[in-house]
Amino acid sequence: MPFNPHPRHPGRPIACLGIDPSAADLAAWGLPDAPEGALAFGRALLAAAGGACPVVKPQVAYFERFGAAGYAVLETLIGEAREAGLTVIADAKRADIGPTMDAYAQAWIGPDAPLQVDAVTAVPYLGLDALRPLLDRAFAAGAYVFVVTRSSNPEGAAVQGHGAPPLWQHVAEGIAGMGADYAPGFPGAVIGATDPVDLRRAAQIMPDARFLVPGIGAQGGRMEDLDALPPEVRERLVVSSARAVASQGPSAARLRAAVAALAG
After folding, report:
1. Per-residue pLDDT tens for 136-168?
2. Does residue 182 contact residue 139 with C-beta atoms inside 8 Å?
3. Is 14 helix (H, G, I), strand (E, B) or coil?
């Protein structure tokens, strides 16, 4: 299966630690709301990930807000994470068409990419085929793409849930059909942990795909809801938490305990 970091426990979801250096979290840690604060924050979370959490997911917006200096910090953290053997997902949610989409892909995917990561998130609402330049480059490079399908934020429901069957299911069916052009399970999808019923349905529509599952903790998603899913579904989940873990910092011991709890 594409995107195959080793789980800590077979049959369990893969843990993913979000790295979101928000102004509020940096202040809570006593760090400056500046690039150097984001760097210290990110490095502390990478250290906490250790061997317990195989995947990290920096949220690009929290680095982009610092401009070029923020991107330099992000590039540093991505490099340090990959050197440590961690799988890196860039939560960039890119969306565009044609050459512009390929330009985004050049930034994130492949050995010549300045911000090379193992996977990236993308938005399908300019049309699934508009994602082809990104998908082509990722597939050729052995990287992965998670397409936002049923997001964890409550505002998303008005659009993604529109119609009967809901729009997000049409997107999921389209993603599943793309496997014929690439490989079974490529690309994957973002499905929020806040609606386990939709997650179960998505797993039926996309029987081979990986799912990036945000929303555990601060957004209301619960690990116990995911535990009720069949084992063959659970092992395809990449379950992400950011704020709930960061709230335990800056204590290194408490961060490691929070990561261990996320990893199960």
Report:
1. 999 999 999 999 999 878 788 888 889 899 999
2. yes
3. strand
SS3 77: helix
Catalytic option among 43, 93, 132, 200: 93
The pair of structure tokens assigned to 13 is 């979801």
Task: Report the predicted TM-score, pTM, of the whole model to 2 decimal places.
Answer: 0.94
Does a cis peptide bond (omega within 30 degrees of 0) precede residue 187?
Answer: yes
- Residue 120: what are its φ and ψ, rounded to 5°? -145, 150
Spatial CA neighbour of 94 closest among 129, 58, 123: 123
Domains recognised in the chain with CATH numbers: 14-263 (3.20.20.70)
Three-state DSSP state, 148: strand
**What residue has token string 């890119």?**
94
Burial of 146 (0-12, 13-18, 19+ CB in 10 A): buried
Phi, psi of 48 (to 5 degrees): -70, -30
Contact 221, 213 (CB under 8 A): yes
Mean pLDDT computed over every residue of the chain: 92
* 93 a catalytic residue: yes
Structure tokens at 113: 């990419």
* Cα distance between residue 214 and residue 168, in whole Å: 16
Q: Which helix (H) or strand (E) holds 192?
A: none
- 61 closest CA partner among 28, 101, 18, 30: 18
